[in-house]
Amino acid sequence: MQNRQQVISNIRKIAKEYNNPEHFVEDPIAFPRHFNMLANGIYPDDGYPIAKDYVPAFKDVEIAAVIAAHLAWGRRNMIVRDIGRAMDEMKWKPYWYVMKGEYRCGPESLHRTVRWSEFATICTNLKEFYSHNESLECLSPQQMRVHIFSQKEDKNCANKKIHMLRRWMVRNDGIVDLGVWKSISPKELIIPLDVHVHQTALALGITERNGTDIKTALEITEFLKECFPEDPCLGDFALFAYPVAEQKKRKSDK
């Protein structure tokens, strides 16, 4: 492992630099942020449509976050494009669309291998959930996996998209993440583990585990608690940006 204290110092520095809205203009989080601003009476200057005669509320934020997180894999420009396609289908009125109950459902691709039929299943699950509940905040990651995304329970899965959604909704520093779920503490969050973050963690010696499973995610999260005891997922910004930041540093040192 690289010098542990040096890695911790670098992660703190890079997290501070990249926990910045300018790095997340074209990013999946832009969609729940759009609806969160509207729900708070703020008209965002983000270029996204605003539905006429519709006032978004908290459930619009949650639904936008679910759809955005589900499609958040692959190239960022394609992710943003295809989340936009989903929002267009919803007429930029997510809660209205879900509760109306008439969904686009077919074998055509919405995003990569995600079909419109999968989108319709998630909308159906959300309609059922909101018919009896006010907020997704009450769901555990496993419950969200099963009851919203219609996936089989898997206690070994890292559930990257779900933990990314939870990071968006829980972290409350008012910079990039939304902080709209109040009953979950940021220190309870687990790092959203994907291949990119895993490779960075391996290179830094944060983990030696080869699998991208929940045990690896928890091990990385425990390390990040050394960097940010009350907010380990602040380190997500650093692990995501670490290779780029190190490359910039090497160039500046020449």
- Uncertain runs are none
Q: Characterize the largest beta sheet: strand count, sense, and whether it forms a barrel.
A: 2 strands, antiparallel
What oligomeric state best describes the polypeptide chains here?
single chain
- Molecular shape: globular
User: How many whole angstroms does the radius of gyration measure?
Assistant: 18 Å
Structural class: mainly alpha
| Overall pLDDT metric | 95
SSE succession? HHHHHEEHHHHHH
How many angstroms separate the termini?
A: 25 Å
User: What strand order characterises the main sheet?
Assistant: 1-2
Number of strands: 2
| Helical percentage | 40-55%
Can you count the helices? 11
| Portion in beta strands | under 5%
Structural commentary:
Helix 3 packs antiparallel against helix 8 (160-170) and helix 9 (195-204) crosses helix 11. The protein has a domain at 25-138. The protein has helices at residues 4-18, 30-39, 58-70, 76-89, 94-100, 116-130, 141-147, 160-170, 195-204, 214-227, 235-253, and strands spanning 109-111, 114-115. It is mostly helical and 254 residues long. The model has no long low-confidence stretch (mean pLDDT 95). The longest helix has 19 residues, at 235-253. It is globular, with a radius of gyration of 18 Å. The two termini are 25 Å apart. It is 53% helix and 2% strand. It has a two-stranded antiparallel sheet with strand order 1-2. 37% of the residues are buried.
What is the strand and helix layout of this fold?
Blueprint: H1 4-18, H2 30-39, H3 58-70, H4 76-89, H5 94-100, E1 109-111, E2 114-115, H6 116-130, H7 141-147, H8 160-170, H9 195-204, H10 214-227, H11 235-253
Antiparallel strand pairs: 1-2
